[in-house]
Amino acid sequence: MSSMIKIAVDAMGGDNSPKKIIDGIINHHSSNKDVFYKIFGNEEEIKKCLDNKINNNNFEIINTLNKVSSEDSPLEAAKRGKDTSMWLAIQSVKQKDCDIVISAGNTGALLVISKLNLKMIENIDKPALSALWPNKKSMSVVLDLGANIECSSKNLFDFSIMGASLYKSLYPQETPRVALLNIGSEELKGNEIIKETFKIMNEKKSDDYKFCGYIEGNELMNGNVNVIVSDGFTGNVALKTAEGTANFITDELKKALSGSIIGKISSLMNISNLKKFKQRLDPRLYNGAIFIGLDSPVVKSHGGTDYIGFSNSLDVCCKIIKGDLIEKIKKNI
């Protein structure tokens, strides 16, 4: 078992848990036999869902009936006790029983309980919430997506290093190309903090990534850069706008192609292209946000995703461990 990747799983977070979580584990296990799942939650419910579909050598259940609810504030979640499935899952990473922790539960609670249990990487002041976005060429890492509303130039510089390290862990063959999200591409645009960050990034040359200056919101998906850095306020607004736009386009396309006889005929004629289009915008493929900056990796799966989405975020966990993310950040910082 020593060579196995060990993932601590909070089985009680998110909609339709633990069924969705366990179905995601079963789906992931079908093509990943080198992963050990340490599952935290209601043992009776978990066993019902598992139904002997995973090899006994690949999992262990830690029984706990207490859980963090989606309605809990981060403070309430922390006060709920150290026997919640979320707390125990994070603690198993702190104690080095597991390599990485994943939860589809309450985002604020996950961040606060992670910060209470795990140390920060030396010289990093704040953890960032990062995620994968599709672009025209492949994928981008975007951070921060809401963990820090206000950031200093040092924070943004740290996010750049962490984002580049994350990208390199996920895509070892590619060079991270880093840009700062701003209201214009000229050096004089933006507030003082972003201008100061630009200056720091320009002066600190690195072989580990290429700094590409500023990027505007309308260029996020063009694929010319693959690590996009902003404060949590701006990043969160950009994320929600992009998600809303993708949903709007797919809904309008559905209406147009199912509203009339001509629409139905053209959708039948273009069925393979439409499938490709749908898959490209399927949010389940990009599920799995990562809190980086802590000395152990914490992955947040979307609470509303299904078992396929959860399975994809387990894939992200494996890539992070195989890519040695934490060591890369420590080396680059």
Cα-based radius of gyration, to the nearest Å: 21 Å
Low-confidence stretches: none
Number of strands: 11
Helix residue percentage? 40-55%
Write the CATH homologous superfamily of the largest domain.
Isopropylmalate Dehydrogenase
> Main beta sheet, described?
11 strands, mixed
End-to-end distance:
32 Å
What is the helix tally?
12
Concise overview:
With 333 residues, this protein is an alpha/beta fold.
3D structure, described in words:
The protein is an alpha/beta fold and 333 residues long. The chain folds into two domains: 1-124 and 293-333, Isopropylmalate Dehydrogenase; 125-286, Isopropylmalate Dehydrogenase (3-Layer(aba) Sandwich). It has helices spanning 19-29, 43-50, 74-79, 85-94, 107-117, 153-170, 192-203, 232-258, 261-269, 271-280, 307-322, 325-332; strands spanning 5-10, 35-41, 59-63, 100-103, 128-134, 139-143, 177-181, 210-215, 227-229, 289-292, 298-300. An eleven-stranded mixed beta sheet has the order 3-2-1-4-11-10-5-6-9-7-8, sandwiched between helices. The longest helix is centred in the last third of the chain and has 27 residues, at 232-258.
List keywords for this structure.
alpha/beta; 11-stranded mixed beta sheet; Isopropylmalate Dehydrogenase; 44% helix; 333 residues
Detail the topology: elements first, then pairings.
Blueprint: E1 5-10, H1 19-29, E2 35-41, H2 43-50, E3 59-63, H3 74-79, H4 85-94, E4 100-103, H5 107-117, E5 128-134, E6 139-143, H6 153-170, E7 177-181, H7 192-203, E8 210-215, E9 227-229, H8 232-258, H9 261-269, H10 271-280, E10 289-292, E11 298-300, H11 307-322, H12 325-332
Parallel strand pairs: 1-2, 1-4, 2-3, 4-11, 6-9, 7-8, 7-9
Antiparallel strand pairs: 5-6, 5-10, 10-11
Helix pairs in contact: 1-2, 1-11, 4-5, 6-7, 6-12
